[in-house]
Amino acid sequence: MLTTLSSAQEEIVLALREYLRLSVDDLLVVAREFLHPDLSHSALQRLLKRRGLPSLAALKKQERADQAPTHKPFKAYTPGYIHVDVKHLPQMLDENRKRYLFVAIDRATRWVYLEVRQHQSAR
After folding, report:
1. What spatial distance separates the first Cα and last Cα of the chain, rounded to whole Å?
2. 3-state per-residue secondary structure call for the chain
3. For the packed helices 24-34 and 41-50, what is the interaxial angle rounded to 10 degrees?
4. Which of 68 and 37 is assigned the larger pLDDT?
5. Which entry of 51, 63, 86, 108 is 20 to 30 Å from 93 by CA?
6. What is the pLDDT of residues 23-57, one digit of tens each?
């Protein structure tokens, strides 16, 4: 009984494994249904091993590592380095003037100070 796959069928099996992340048992069911009804479990495993495809656990681990966000560490600052932002607050119906939100953040200690002022200037 001939249970080998053609090279085109092998490529299909490998693509199914890579893109759908099917287990060997699920891959065997699909391959038997659509490619080769006499394909054996051991022949499928030999194909995967011969082509160097990693296990599903290794694929999932690699996928998680690829998706993990890479954060740069914060730059180290000495206390006293202050970042200041000024935001225009919306003028409410009961107000005559615009107001401004001043936010100061010490980059080293993350200490925050905020104040709402009537003028955008330092007055």
Report:
1. 93
2. CCCCCCHHHHHHHHHHHHHHCCCHHHHHHHHHHHCCCCCCHHHHHHHHHHCCCCCHHHHHHHHHHHHCCCCCCCCCCCCCCEEEEEEEECCCCCCCCCEEEEEEEECCCCCEEEEEECCCCCC
3. 110
4. 37
5. 86
6. 899 999 999 998 999 999 999 999 999 988 888 88
Would you say the C-alpha torsion 17, 22, 25, 29 has a positive or negative sign? negative
Crossing angle of helices 41-50 and 7-20, in 10° steps, is 80
How far apart CA 6 and CA 26 sit, in angstroms, is 20
With tokens 């104040």, the residue in question is: 115
> Domain-by-domain residue ranges, the chain?
7-67, 72-123
Instruction: List residues bridging with 15 in a β-sheet.
Output: none
CA distance 98 to 82: 25
